[in-house]
Amino acid sequence: MGAPTRQVVDSEGWRAPELAQVGARPLFGGRRKAGAVNYLSVAAATLAVVALVVTTSFAFIQRATANPADDAMISLREREAELANETKVLQTAADLFDSSVEEAASLADASAPVLAGLSGRVDGSVLGSVESARGALAAAAASAVAISVPAYQRAQIDEKDLADVGKAIDNVRLSRDELPALITDARDARSTIVSAISGYRAQLQSLGTAIESEATKLVAENDSAGSSFRTAVTDTAARVVTAQRAGGDGLAEMPAYAAAVDALRAENARIVALEEAERENTPSRPTAPIGGTGNGGDTDSDSSDPGSPAPQPSQPAPSPDPEPSPEPSQPEPTPDPEPTVPSVPNPDPTAPIEGGTT
């Protein structure tokens, strides 16, 4: 066989690995020559590297020559911002506490006359429990202590003095250390007031239920009054319960219920009094027969109570007077018995006298 075929080397002289020569590879891909754009890119990259080195060197030099108090001032401002945020949290807790105390005092004061007006118009045991809860609420509001929010104010310092700045940072830290306990106290105090308010509102709910039950009893007891009075009591009691179910306390509706109860009782008493007077004024004796013994012999002619009311609208008309006739019940007067009953009887004038002449 003949000798192996030798690989042809093209004009560029580098495609055959075994024939590659150092420096024979084209610098720019072998297809085009270097131009102005390529040189500009190299120059821009060189300038970027130089700028980065200069900037880093400047920052390092500035860092090395900077005053440590400047960094401390940055830290101080950050600590003061954190303190301001926590102070706002405490202020919010204090505002909520003050609002709850004001609500408790207002609720206790406003409900006092309402509860007093319900006395005798609802179950006394339920009303007593509500009054006890109201007293506890008023006491809690009266004993509440206002929450003080400390105000931070940076003292005059030399911002270039590291010692002054460090002292200011310590003051901020001490102020921040006080805030968590104050925030907890404010929240606990508000929880006490809110619990008292919730307990009192629960008692008012029980009072509303008792009012509705009492209204039913009062309507049954005062059945002589008109239907409008009875309906007014049940309607006003229902308004109390409806308001409480809607989330209210029902205090605004309770005075109307008390007024309706008073009106019902007054109307019932008036009707009962009229019926009693009518029964008393109605005559219960029988009518005297005509031709009787007269007024002298009628023992029931004036048997009515002299203290009865003067007007007698239901008294029957008087019977007509009987015709005049001799009074049979009154016998004629008898003559004086003295001349008719002598001690010695008179002789008969027609009889002869014994023994002689007259």
Give the DSSP E fraction (strand runs of 2 or more residues): under 5%
Which ranges are low-confidence, i.e. pLDDT below 50, for 5 or more consecutive residues?
Answer: 291-314, 316-320, 322-331, 339-358
Number of helices: 6
Give the number of DSSP strands: 0
- Globally, the shape reads elongated
Main features:
58% helix; membrane; mainly alpha
What does this structure look like?
The protein is an all-alpha fold. The protein folds into two domains: 27-66; 68-279. Helices cover 58% and strands 0% of the residues. It contains six helices and no strands. The protein has helices at 36-65, 68-117, 124-142, 162-221, 227-245, 254-281. Helix 2 packs parallel to helix 4 (162-221). The longest helix is centred in the middle third of the chain and has 60 residues, at 162-221. The termini are far apart. The model is unreliable at 291-314, 316-320, 322-331 and 339-358 (pLDDT under 50).
Chain-wise SSE layout:
Blueprint: H1 36-65, H2 68-117, H3 124-142, H4 162-221, H5 227-245, H6 254-281
Helix pairs in contact: 2-3, 2-4, 3-4, 4-5, 4-6, 5-6
Summarize the structure.
The protein has 358 residues and is an all-alpha fold. It has helices at 36-65, 68-117, 124-142, 162-221, 227-245, 254-281.
